[in-house]
Amino acid sequence: MDIIEIRKRVLEALNINGETSFTDEELSQMLNKKRHNHHSDKIVDEDLKEDFDQKFIEFDKLYKEFTKAKVRDNKSKEIALISTELDLFQTKQDNVELEDIISRLNAELEKKNSKIGELENSILIVSRDSILKERESLINSIKPKKQNYFKILGIIASLTLGLNILTKFGNISDILSKSFNVNANYILLSLFTIISLAYIYSQIREYIAKTISREICTVSTIKKFVSKVRTDFTEFDVYDFLEEYFKQRKGIKNWIYKKIFKAYNESTIETFKQIFIMELLNKKVIRIGAVFDLEQKYMMIRQFVEKKENGEVILKEY
Questions:
Q1: Tell me, what's the pLDDT at 49?
Q2: Could you give the angle at which helices 184-216 and 266-282 cross, rounded to 10 degrees?
Q3: What is the pTM (predicted TM-score) of this model?
Q4: What is the Cα–Cα distance from 119 to 98, expressed in whole angstroms?
Q5: 210 three-state secondary structure
């Protein structure tokens, strides 16, 4: 029988009804006192002795049951307390282990964040190198190749040597003079003039290419582009922007760039387009989208700064 049921019987034996604030120890003392009061030695009247003996036996039995039940209940409470303490100890132990795991994970996260930072820097370097390589490719595409210079110089050297040999003979010199109505030395001078002008022309085109490449990568040009295009756009939109950008340029200098040095023709604008797109990627103004119907698509990155309650400032995209 459990402690609750025995306690009810004790309360009935003590004539206590309803709720009570007596502890089990106090109830036990009261029951023990009542048990002693019903001992046969306490009564003189022989007629009441038998009744007192019967009551004493009942109270004694109930007292012993109540005492045993209290012992069992106290042990259960002690076990429960020990179990609770063990659970608390285990929880603390688990917390220590979890804190150790969190510490190790934070260390790993810090290493990975450091690695991510290094990779992002590498991406920026690669992106910048790509822009410079593309720019160099543009410059090389609009100037004569070095081997062409050597070929022309070789031809001039051969002609010079040949003319020098031929002019040693009077009759051949006379024939050349009569045939071309010009002195052989003038022919040689003309060839040198042509190659010099070709070289100067190529150097000017190279300078123009460098100047325009730097100009289209400036912040002001990028801002103009961002203000004109949609959030999502294609590489052909970039081409149209640059074509319109160059058309709006006025003045004799730009007329010379366009008509004489062919700086704004289709092939050079195509190369300028690639340089400009890579500069947008490098500055994280855009991200690459999907390719659809041979068109490379891009997405404009809108960024804003948010300040948290703890003072931390973060950059968000939308």
A1: 73
A2: 30
A3: 0.47
A4: 31
A5: helix
